[in-house]
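Changelog note: in this version the structure field was regenerated for every chain. One regenerated record is shown below for reference.
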Amino acid sequence: MTLRRFILRSLLALLPVIIFIGTYAVLDPFKVIYRYDEPSAPGDTVALGHNAGFASIKCLERNLKAGRTYDSFILGSSMSQAYSARDWSEHLPAGASIFHLDASEETLQGMLDKLRYLHDHGIKVSNALIIIEEAMLHRDPNDTNFLFVRPSSTTPDVNWVQFQLAFFEVYKNPTFIGYSIAPSRFRSTMLKKRMATAMLETHTDSTNENIFTSLDSLIAADPDAYFSTKRLQSNYYCPPPSPECPGITPERERIIEQIAAIMLDGGTDYRVIVPPRFNRQQLHPCDLAVLHTHFGAQRVHDYSHHPYSTDPRAYYDWAAHLTTSRCAALLHDAYTTGR
């Protein structure tokens, strides 16, 4: 066999792979290659899961390019989304400009990455609301799942290729391929595997927050129907008990120390809220002590033992996302009574 024929046969054998990779690059199904102004199209009932950390940074960049400025930031996981800019603004100086800089299952390292990103881009953080749930203290920052992998734009130890590979892994998943061919047939499987979401709320681009208007309306109209017996008895509302050991390792404490140092150096007025989760125990005393040491006891508000932790009606869903009204109540408490 001549070298020319060998190369030709090799290229023909690789052609399906080349085409498959090419369609990923052209279609960009997860919206992580090209520029997009909206996370989902109007009228969508299901959207592919997206990396909220990446989407937050891109949304911020769009707004900065459009001439908007920000001086106040809400940082945390999806549990920070229901702390609305409107409610927080009631406790800030007049004229404060707020932006949600969240990420799905945010980690301490991811939060530090974002604060460094703001610093490197000359953005002064005058006010910060930091939501640190107990689970965040136990998370591995090196998760390569497409929903949680840290974006290369903020993370020095994750390059663009590594970031894209996390999404390509999903693209070649048989479930995703089936969904691309027969969406209705694979819709439920996509939702169960968290490759897609049906919880599409109104997205406000200027603040990068999801407004849970439809869910709040359903709860207000008929709370008993929303919090049905099936929902309240679901196993989803029975998460594993809180770990008996603290989650903050020496490495994670160093990250917390760096986050606090950035706040101190920037003259940031901040609050740290540890939110409740249904059926979970109180934050480990050792973890709370570390937060007090670096952030200051007067700035840390531990609500892990709050009565909301025993009230399933305080949450939108099984993932322990507090309703907006409950988040507003915690904000009011943190900025007034300082408990």
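Spot check on this record: The longest strand covers residues 269-274. DSSP finds 13 helices and nine strands in the chain.
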